[in-house]
Design goal:
176 residues; mainly alpha; 66% helix; binds heme C
Length: 176
C-alpha cells in the first residue's frame, strides 16, 4: 500500500485506540461501588467486652433505639424548638430541628420499614417548617408548626397508634 493511503489509516487506528482508552477510563470512574461480600461471621458469636461483662454483636444490634425511643427525643426537640422560635432564638430553633432530623435518621436505619414515611414527612412538613425558621418568620412558623403536628399525629394514626397525639406542653422549657 502507498504511504499516502497508510497515513489516514494509521491516524484512524490511533484515534480509535485513544477513544477506547478514554471510554474505559470513564467507565471505570462511574462504575458502581463494589457490593459488599456477605459477612462470614455470625453476629451471635462475636463477643464484645464491656465494663459490665460480655455482649454479643447480635445483642448490641438488637438494643439500638427503635421508633419509640427516637420519638421521645423527637417530641422533646419539637417542644424546645417551638418555644425557642417564640422567644426569637432562631438559632436554637434551627439547631433543635436539625437534631430532630438526625435522630429521625437513626429511626430510618433501625426501622427501615418506616423510612419511606419518615422521609416523605420530612419533605412535606419539616422542610417548609425549616424555611420559616431560616426566614425568622414567627407567623409563618406557627402555621407550618401546626401543619407539622397534624402530620405527626396523622402518621401515628396511620401506624395504628391513634392514641399517641402529640400536643405542645403549655409550660415553656427553661431556655438560655
Ligand atoms: C413515620 C410516621 C411518624 C411520624 C411522621 C411521626 N411519628 Fe411519632 N411515632 C410513630 C410511631 C410508629 C410511634 C410508636 C412508637 C413505636 O413504634 O414503638 C410514635 C410515637 C411517638 C411518641 C410516643 C413515644 C413514647 O413511647 O412515649 C411521641 C411523643 C411522638 N411519636 C412524637 C412525634 C412528633 C412530635 C412527631 C412530629 C414532629 C412525630 N412523632 C412524627 C410514627 C411517627
Amino acid at each position: 500500500m502507498e504511504t499516502k493511503t497508510m497515513v489516514p489509516i494509521v491516524i484512524s487506528v490511533v484515534a480509535i485506540l485513544i477513544a477506547g482508552a478514554a471510554l474505559s477510563m470513564g467507565y471505570r470512574a462511574v462504575q458502581a461501588p463494589q457490593v459488599p461480600v456477605a459477612p462470614t461471621i455470625n453476629p451471635a458469636q462475636v463477643s464484645i467486652t464491656t465494663s459490665h461483662g460480655n455482649l454479643t454483636l447480635a445483642q448490641l444490634a438488637e438494643i439500638q433505639p427503635g421508633l419509640g425511643t427516637v420519638m421521645l427525643e423527637y417530641g422533646n426537640r419539637f417542644y424546645i424548638m417551638y418555644y425557642a422560635a417564640k422567644n426569637g432564638n432562631w438559632d436554637l430553633a434551627s439547631y433543635q430541628l436539625k437534631e430532630a432530623l438526625e435522630i429521625q435518621e437513626t429511626g430510618e436505619t433501625t426501622r427501615p420499614g418506616r423510612a419511606p414515611m419518615l422521609k416523605s414527612f420530612e419533605s412535606a412538613y419539616l422542610e417548609p417548617l425549616n424555611n420559616t425558621i431560616n426566614a425568622k418568620d414567627w407567623n409563618a412558623f406557627q402555621t407550618a408548626y401546626n401543619n407539622t403536628v397534624q402530620g405527626c399525629n396523622g402518621c401515628h394514626a396511620a401506624n395504628k397508634f391513634p392514641y399517641i397525639k402529640y400536643t405542645l406542653p403549655s409550660n415553656p422549657p427553661s431556655l438560655p
